[in-house]
C-alpha cells in the first residue's frame, strides 16, 4: 500500500497550499512560503520573528533581532503577496486590503488549479501502483484474478482521494467567495 502514502502526501501538500491562501482574515501561515537568509540559512519568517494577528486584517511581525526588520521587509516586498509592509523600526505591520470580487475569482481559480495538481499526483500514484501490480503478475507472483482485484482496489482508493480533493476545493472556494 505504498501508493496510499503518496496519495496522503498529495493531500497534505494541498492542505498546506490552501493554508497559505488568504481567506479574508489575516493568517500567519500566509508567510510560510517566504524564506529569509538568517546567518547563511534560509529560514521561514516565523523562525526569526513572532507573527501575531492583532485584528482581522493586520499581521504584526516582531523580529527577535531588530536588525532583521529590513531583511524581512525586503522579502515581503519581493514576494507575490501584494502587501506593502510598514515598519516602525521594531515591528512590521501588514495591512490586508479588503478582497475585491475580481481578487476572489482569481483566488478561486488558483484553488481549483492547486486541486487539479493534487489530482494529477493522485493519478500518478495510481499509475505507479497499477504498473507494480502488472510487474508482479508478469513475474508470476500475482494471478490474473488477483491482478484484476488489485486494480479495482487501487481504483476505489483513487476515487476516494479524488473525492476528498473535490470536497476540499469546494470548501475553500466557498470560504473565499462568501467573505
Question: Any descriptors?
Answer:
two-stranded antiparallel sheet, 179 residues, 4 helices, four-stranded antiparallel β-sheet, elongated, alpha+beta
Your description of this structure?
Helices cover 56% and strands 16% of the residues. It has 179 residues and is α+β, with helices and mostly antiparallel strands. The strands form 2 sheets. It has a 4-stranded antiparallel beta sheet, covered by helices on one side. A two-stranded antiparallel sheet has the order 1-2. β5 and β6 form a beta hairpin. α1 runs antiparallel to α3 and α1 packs parallel to α4. It starts with a helix and ends with a helix.
Summed up, what is this model?
The chain is 56% helix and 16% strand.
| Oligomeric form | single chain
Envelope shape = elongated
Q: From the helix content, strand content and strand pairing, which structural class follows?
A: alpha+beta
The whole-number mean of residue pLDDT values reads: 87
Q: Helix-strand pattern, N to C?
A: HEEEEHEEHH
Largest sheet: 4 strands, antiparallel
Rg estimate, integer Å? 22 Å
Number of helices: 4
The side-by-side strand order for the widest beta sheet comes to 3-4-6-5
Strand content: 15-25%
N-C termini distance = 40 Å
Q: Considering DSSP H and I runs of 4 or more, what fraction of the residues is helical?
A: 55-70%
Poorly predicted sequence stretches spanning 5 or more consecutive residues:
none
Strand element count: 6
